[in-house]
Design a protein that fits this description.
Elements: H1 3-30, H2 39-62, H3 70-92, H4 96-119
């Protein structure tokens, strides 16, 4: 597959994943997340699977040595933090305040990951 197609699929998946997470966070703050239907529980998993698959395809197509690419390692580490924070924000947070703080932190981590990918530096937008 052409690398530009993989890249565009990855970027589209990033935008869709962010949009769904942002909406789910807003619905969580309104207290209506659980009432949004089955698609709210299924769609993010499908989108994130496509996002991960396109990321792996990009790494393979570009021949990036993951362990020797600092910005990519930083992005992968941030991804794990983003998953934990997102889980706290949407499911595991004990109080509305802790959920809000986890959601805001997850959004910041997401912005960091985008910056690391765009700038190709672990310094993200500051580099």
């Amino acid at each position: 597959m052409d690398i530009s197609i993989i890249r565009h699929l990855h970027i589209a998946s990033v935008v869709l994943s962010f949009t769904l997470f942002f909406l789910r966070g807003l619905w969580m703050l309104q207290g209506t997340l659980a009432q949004r239907g089955r698609w709210v529980r299924i769609a993010p998993h499908l989108v994130d699977t496509g996002l991960l698959a396109s990321a792996v395809a990009l790494v393979l197509a570009l021949g990036l040595p993951v362990l020797e690419t600092p910005w990519l390692l930083a992005k992968i580490a941030a991804l794990f933090l983003y998953i934990v924070l997102g889980s706290m924000a949407l499911r595991r947070g004990k109080t509305p305040r802790s959920r809000l703080l986890a959601w805001l932190a997850a959004l910041a981590v997401f912005a960091y990951m985008v910056g690391a990918a765009v700038r190709h530096t672990p310094m993200s937008w500051l580099g």
